[in-house]
Amino acid sequence: MTDNRKPTKSAQALDTLYAADQPRQDFRFDAAVARVFPDMIRRSVPGYTTIIPMIQVITEQYVQPGSRCYDLGCSLGASTLAMRHGMPASGCTLTGVDNSDAMIERCEHFIALDDHPLPVELRCEDILDTPIENASVTTLNFTLQFVDPERRVELLARIAAATRPGGVLILSEKIRFESANEQDTQTRLHHEFKRANGYSDMEISQKRSALEQVLIPETLAQHRQRLEQAGFENIMVWYQCFNFVSMLAFKPA
């Protein structure tokens, strides 16, 4: 497995967005977040640096000849590039979608730096509006949690309907737990992870407040039920660290 991704120094800008006291406002994927996003997600999401290369491995296993692959909510393209390196150089197509202009602009930069012959189509639009067809591998990498809960099953059903038999959805999410004790324990451990990565208590608190009305986590049971309702089966967790998981959901063969 090769990895030819070449981040620039600008991509490694330190996340200090919440280092100073500031009025509360909802989190947005704007230019300021795009600038520090690689550092932000590495220091905020335990296991992210494991999930990304494994998306390449999973793509290699389940991409089908002549099919389409999608990275929905691609941000700066880390999972897009992982999928790209797991796909054949010809015969398939890869589309990355994000509704943030700032994210797509930087994603284009990283795609251009990547040494791989497979073209990547990037679309700046709401993933709820993205046409999906003839799919074998689709990735929602920490994306569904930002979609209106009332429209999540609609999106998953469209993905399932467009997925070839034997195809797969990779779904990574922050989850919540049915047990209050487990929720408290996993949240505390997640915050300790962030402290270990250099975030202050103020940064942790302000970021959490900014995300409260934007990132809506659900339980594993809710995810499983919705995926089955949408038309997937053999739903399994292949990775978990604290309150972050990545799942595989298969289209019946």
Automatic annotation (TrEMBL):
Does the keyword DNA repair belong to this entry? no
InterPro entries found in the cross-reference section: CmoA, Methyltransf_25, SAM-dependent_MTases_sf
Give the residues the record marks as binding S-adenosyl-L-methionine: 48, 73-75, 98-99, 126-127, 141, 208
Q: Which residues form a coiled coil?
A: none
Kindly state which keywords UniProt assigns to this record, in alphabetical order: S-adenosyl-L-methionine, Transferase
List, alphabetically, the PANTHER family matched.
CARBOXY-S-ADENOSYL-L-METHIONINE SYNTHASE, TRANS-ACONITATE 2-METHYLTRANSFERASE-RELATED
Q: What does this protein do?
A: Catalyzes the conversion of S-adenosyl-L-methionine (SAM) to carboxy-S-adenosyl-L-methionine (Cx-SAM).
According to UniProt, the name of this protein is Carboxy-S-adenosyl-L-methionine synthase
